[in-house]
Design goal:
The structure is a single chain. The chain has a 7-stranded parallel β-sheet, sandwiched between helices. The radius of gyration is 20 Å and the shape is globular. It has helices at residues 17-26, 57-63, 82-92, 117-132, 147-152, 179-191, 210-220, 233-245, 251-262, 276-279, 286-297; strands at residues 6-10, 30-35, 48-51, 69-72, 96-98, 137-142, 145-146, 163-167, 174-177, 199-202, 206-208, 227-231. Helix 4 (117-132) links the parallel strand 5 and strand 6. The chain folds into 2 domains: 6-143 and 176-202, NAD(P)-binding Rossmann-like Domain (Rossmann fold); 146-174 and 206-269 and 279-297. With 298 residues, it is an alpha/beta fold.
Length: 298
């Protein structure tokens, strides 16, 4: 049975990395953080910080010696360069690699050729091939939409303007997981290396749809008057693809691609079959959901 104790994080200073770092330290993993500069000293005394050249396989390989696992939480701009990190992990004898691919329908064949998703697919396929040719193993962790992001994103429900544009009727079910729960699930993956080996690991704290969110908001503050409208996921996706095809590389264009797929029922964003029990993930309670919505309405 494989044992994982020494874990390296690439991208620990981003939006997701700090949550993973905290969760790993809470269950006493030995954590190393890869940085571009040793000036990044805010990780605490328990964390080993190693300066590396992310463009150099040899530099990364040296940093990954004696490491059991690597998790990448690198952001969009660095996704393609994960192939170098994968090469280094294999060369250094790392056992488990988790790429930065945390979303709702990233592994669906229907999105593999779409902007952003295609980069994830390229890295994922590269990782699978590397695992087949070496001792490296992998886990693809699918947490659905991060709950914090969903509730902050006006395309799902606009708490500020008290409006909802129902996408395909507002009934598309989407798995959601908080950042903290996701991070604890990562630690649990490392505690169950054999059962999470070379596959997609699904995490789903809750499955929500837009109408359900609106119903919760109405229960929390029944005095608020809401405005609703309707829109098709295919139209949202097309708007994003057209903007990118015309030379646009804006956050909104890629956001439309994500919204059009996450809320398109055919892309499979709801994980009825998941690994919650294995990873110790508890379901999101109705009271907790009400509290989260109340925070957005205040």
């Amino acid at each position: 049975m494989a044992v994982i104790k020494n874990v390296t994080i690439a991208g620990a200073s981003g939006n997701i990395g700090p949550h993973v770092l905290k969760a790993l330290l809470e269950v006493n993993f030995n954590v190393t953080v890869l940085t571009r500069s040793q000036a990044s000293d805010g990780y605490g005394a328990r964390v080993k910080v190693v300066e590396v050249d992310f463009n150099s396989v040899s530099s990364l390989t040296a940093a990954l010696k004696n490491q059991d696992a690597v998790i990448s939480t690198i952001g969009k701009s660095g996704l393609e360069k994960q192939t170098l990190l994968i090469d280094a992990a294999a060369a250094a004898g790392v056992y488990r690699f988790i790429p930065s691919e945390f979303g709702s329908c990233t592994t669906s064949p229907k999105v593999a050729d779409l902007p952003f998703y295609s980069t994830l697919a390229t890295v994922r396929n590269y990782l699978i091939q590397k695992a087949a040719a070496s001792a490296l193993t992998y886990s693809i962790i699918a947490p659905g939409c991060f709950t914090e992001y969903l509730l902050a994103f006006p395309a799902a429900i606009n708490f500020k303007n008290h409006s909802v544009a129902f996408i395909d009727g507002g009934n598309t079910r989407v798995s959601v997981t908080s950042l903290a729960t996701f991070a604890r699930a990562v630690a649990a993956v490392f505690h169950h290396p054999d059962k999470t080996k070379n596959r997609v690991v699904y995490v789903s704290e809750a499955i929500l749809d837009q109408k359900q969110l609106l119903d919760v908001a109405k229960k929390v503050k029944p005095e608020i008057q809401w405005t609703t409208s309707d829109i098709k996921s295919a139209d949202i996706l097309k708007a994003g693809l057209d903007a990118i095809a015309s030379g646009g590389d804006s956050l909104q264009a890629y956001g439309n691609v994500l919204v059009g797929t996450v809320f398109g029922e055919e892309y499979g964003s709801a994980y009825d079959d998941n690994d919650n029990s294995l990873l110790g993930v508890e379901p999101l309670t109705e009271e907790r959901l009400k509290a989260l919505v109340a925070d957005r309405l205040d």
